[in-house]
Here is the input.
Amino acid sequence: MKTHGSAVWQGGIKDGRGAISTRSGALTDYPYGFSSRFEGKPGTNPEELIGAAHAGCFTMALSLILGEAGLTAERMETRADVTLDKVDDGFAITAVHLTLRAKIPGADQAKFEELAGKAKAGCPVSKLLKAEITMDASLES
Here is the structure.
């Protein structure tokens, strides 16, 4: 499978503006820029998109792993907090922390943590990132 995302940029780093699009059309010319990346202004940024991609990938991977173990989630919600730090002469994504809340009938905490750990290590986005990836996983009853 191959897919794509694209970006257009006009202007300098601080006064410029960009737009991000995805092949599916989920994002079409969605604005991003210095202010949305570093100053909390409206628009998106690459780090939050990576966070959304990682959360989605991890949660799907866990669904597969749960199914292989004979379990089905009633609900799973994952948040991926992405850390962008100044390093040396530039910036780098240095960490991602996954926070998972899940309701999985028939799962006990030990099995849940084992399967979530496999999903964290095995999802394709986790494999892509060189950052430290940590996780908190809580099973709800």
Q: What stands out?
A: Residues 46-68 form the longest helix (23 residues). The chain is about 35% helix and 35% strand. Strands lie at 5-10, 17-22, 30-32, 75-87, 90-103, 132-140.
